Amino acid sequence: MKKRITSYDIQQYAAISKDTATIHLNIEAAARAGFKRPVAHGMYIMGLAQSLYLIEHPSQWITTYSMKFQKPLLIDTVAMFNFEVCDGNINVNVVIESGEVIASGTFTVEERAK
Q: What region does 87 belong to: left with phi over 0, alpha with psi -120 to 50, or beta?
């Protein structure tokens, strides 16, 4: 699934999570840290990956997860969330338009009780 990570998304996440670090919200702070634009929260990206997976698989529930971040995801970037079943787990790669993998991880899922 593709998702453009917007400034609005990050502002909403910052307000809810109370993580208002300026690198996520302010272009000047991001520039001082060496980035062209503010950077998305890692937890936002991980939570978004889980949400996108569950939208496509509503009968499942994520029981464990892990994610490693290789590069920051800048605001106003389109990210592709790729999911693959492997050995009973769900592998996820978050890839930006340039083809760079910015994050990868694994979910363990089980079927929801009916």
A: left
